[in-house]
Amino acid sequence: MNDLPHAALRGTLHVLWMGSLVVPLVSVLREPSGLRWLGVLGLLVLAVAYAVTLRGGPLWVLVAATLATIPLVAPVGPDELSTWAWIGGAAAGFAPLLLTGPWRWLAAIGAVVVSGLVGFFVTRDQTTYQMIAASVGATIIAMAGLPMWFAGLLGQARAGREAQAELAVSEERLRFARDVHDLLGHRLTVIALKAELAGRLADSDPERSAAEAFEAQRLASSALEEVRDAVHGYRAVDFADQLEAVQNVLTEAGIRCTATEVAVQGEPATQLALALREACTNVLRHSHATWCMIDVAAGSGEVRMTVTNDGAEKPSVEGNGLRGLRERLAAVGGQASAEKSGDVFTLQVVVPA
Q1: Can you tell me the distance from the alpha carbon of 33 to that of 37, in angstroms, rounded to the nearest whole number?
Q2: Burial degree of 42 (CB within 10 A; 0-12, 13-18, 19+)
Q3: For 34, which DSSP code?
């Protein structure tokens, strides 16, 4: 069975289902004989089976209940109301929504055919029954099937955005790993050879052994400085470049992004760039945003950045990203705060100028 849609679509399915049972209920209640109560029982069984199936129960329950209504409901009511045709139409409409693969359409066509057979044995008018069943089924598919299809497309788009964000993080980690490997790989090999040579020469040529040991120490110090420079370069991100990159990423993800900025240099620029990168990741991975606004303003002794977006999900436990952002800003005298109003999420970052 397909995954059930979210609450709005589930409500649409309930309304359509109840609408398809209005005519059968009216027809059953207009039956003057005692068969009326058999018809009421059949509709009640069908309603319960539908509720069980829509909440994740086995599909055969609904199929069995639908077939059981043929002897219970079909003979009841005035002939001109075509009592069971509406039930067959509901089966034809919901089959493509509850099944997968080619079986969904075979089941829908089968429900229309069965409606015609029921109409033939009850009123000798199979054409009317089939037309009603086909019309009801097409209406249900149009009103519920298209929204469910669009919801599936939105889910796929969101998964693609999350994959894009994860890929960007993975690529950055690989780049940094390559930089560190390039810096240390050769140096560590040379240091190991120098240390091994110094050990061999310790007895036969103490002076040369000392020179080799000194050279190994010099190479180790040089490698340490280069690693520090690499890490500093990795953390020192240009804020203007990062802002442009974030705008491009959000725009490519279908999010309208507007930004205002001021010239920021030095450590504040680095901290704001890192905070902006975290904010962009949150927008992509934890929202259904259609717009995002980035505002940067300089005040008395501080620079304030505000990132606002719509489509925010329900609040949950604070993630590692936001927690790490607060800790990093606190180390330099800054702060970060987040709040949610409706579906609008706002992240505010303040760093000392």
Answers
A1: 9
A2: buried
A3: T
Question: 7-20 and 146-204 helices cross at what angle (nearest 10)?
Answer: 150
Provide the β-strand partners of residue 338.
347
Q: How many CA atoms lie within 13 A of 207 on its CB side?
A: 0
pLDDT tens, position by position, 63-98: 999 999 999 999 998 888 889 999 999 999 888 888
Q: Which of 137, 43, 45 is nearest to 97 (CA)?
A: 137
Q: Tell me, what's the pLDDT at 350? A: 93
Rounded CA-CA distance 337/244 in Å is 23
What are the structure tokens assigned to 324, written together? 């790490």
Q: Is 311 left (phi over 0), alpha (psi -120 to 50) or beta?
A: left
- Amino acid letter, 86: W
Residue 71 burial (C-beta neighbours within 10 Å; 0-12, 13-18, 19+) = exposed
Q: How far is CA 252 from the centre of its chain?
A: 17
- Sign of the dihedral through C-alpha 103, 104, 105, 111: positive
Closest CA to 138 of 100, 164, 160, 111: 111
Structure tokens of 39?
Answer: 């018809």
Tokens of 183: 């810096």
